[in-house]
Amino acid sequence: MFLIRVPASTANLGPGFDSIGLALGLYLEIHGSLSDSWEVVPLTEEMAAFPKDESNYIVQIAKKTAAFYGKELAPCRLFVSSEIPLARGLGSSASAIVAGIELANLVAELNLTNDQKGRHASLFEGHPDNGGASVYGGLVVGLHTEEQTDIVSFPIKGVKVIVAIPNFELLTEDSRSVLPKTLAYKEAIEGSAAANMVLAAIVSDNWKLVGQMMQRDRFHQPYRAPLVPHLAQIEEIAAQNGAYGTALSGAGPTVLCLVPEAQAEQVQEKLSSKFPDFVIKELLIDNKGSQTMILSEADKEELSFL
Ligand SMILES: Nc1ncnc2c1ncn2[C@@H]1O[C@H](COP(=O)(O)OP(=O)(O)OP(=O)(O)O)[C@@H](O)[C@H]1O
Ligand SMILES: N[C@@H](CCO)C(=O)O
């Protein structure tokens, strides 16, 4: 039996639209083994909505990835569980894509590098931020086109992440439909400079400046604001309670706050009391990215669902 473990991700960090991502410590897990036919067994509630045969998205991605290398995938029985809420801006679709790529890599013995996994994930998802973070872990910066994908990753320490997860879904497709087709030259330059500053501040370990620059997005948040009215309120409460900065997580509706360790509890408490219907929690940064392992007999004995 094998285990595939893929972290969640937050995209953009404000101005890094479709380019910056960060892996977070919520996980999609697949416990699987070879079988006579495809079978997908959901272990968590949200996974139960998806097909239980080979039409399952994860299996489809795995088959397409194997086919790209001229291989056919042997059928498997997969137990799927996920802590990543669907359509909330925490990269659930990218985690499913990366799980499918890892499944193909393991079962068809493709020996893929992270760069190859990141390339496939970006082609399936259309942008490199979520999938890249799920593959590499840590902070990723990517540039993806149909022709080529480049992703650089580095580990992140020294900052706490608090997320405010609303109790409603917002599909990326819907959240992208409100974006403009073109952007004025001056706006684009400012947006691009803000993204560069976010990165420069991160590599200088200047989290206060990171937070300030996160607020200077020109690419998506101004257009998405009507879809996420809680964003402005969370920005204000987080700032009043010592957070470095706040941004929409991916396409939303989750909001992400970067906070100093000493302020994490206070920010979490204030947001919880103001938004009792939201899940407010601290998430760890995942600096490892997706992992696969072969389980021993002793490991298997600890699995209650077998
Ligand atoms: N494990 C899965 N199996 C099949 N489909 C999935 C799975 N996980 C996510 N999806 C699909 O992806 C959709 C959510 O993707 P979407 O891109 O809208 O949001 P997200 O990935 O959660 O957030 P974001 O991209 O903003 O970080 C779900 O509604 C579902 O259709
Ligand atoms: N960069 C993407 C992430 C969500 O998939 C967006 O903001 O639309």
Automatic annotation (TrEMBL):
Instruction: State the Pfam families in the record.
Output: GHMP_kinases_C (PF08544), GHMP_kinases_N (PF00288)
Q: What SUPFAM superfamilies does the record tag this protein with?
A: GHMP Kinase, C-terminal domain, Ribosomal protein S5 domain 2-like
Residue ranges of domain GHMP kinase C-terminal in the record: 199-276
> Which transformation does this protein catalyse, written as a reaction?
L-homoserine + ATP = O-phospho-L-homoserine + ADP + H(+)
Q: What is its EC number?
A: 2.7.1.39
InterPro entries in alphabetical order? GHMP_kinase_C_dom, GHMP_kinase_C_sf, GHMP_kinase_N_dom, GHMP_knse_ATP-bd_CS, Homoserine_kinase, Ribosomal_Su5_D2-typ_SF, Ribsml_uS5_D2-typ_fold_subgr
| Keyword set, alphabetical order | Amino-acid biosynthesis, ATP-binding, Cytoplasm, Kinase, Nucleotide-binding, Threonine biosynthesis, Transferase
Residues engaged in binding ATP: P85, L86, A87, R88, G89, L90, G91, S92, S93, A94, S95
Q: In which pathway does it act?
A: Amino-acid biosynthesis; L-threonine biosynthesis; L-threonine from L-aspartate: step 4/5
Subcellular location(s) of the protein: Cytoplasm
For this record, the Gene Ontology CC terms, alphabetical, are: cytoplasm
Say if the entry is tagged with keyword Cytoplasm.
Answer: yes
Q: What name does this protein carry?
A: Homoserine kinase
Q: Which organism is it from?
A: Peribacillus asahii
Taxonomic placement: Bacteria, Bacillati, Bacillota, Bacilli, Bacillales
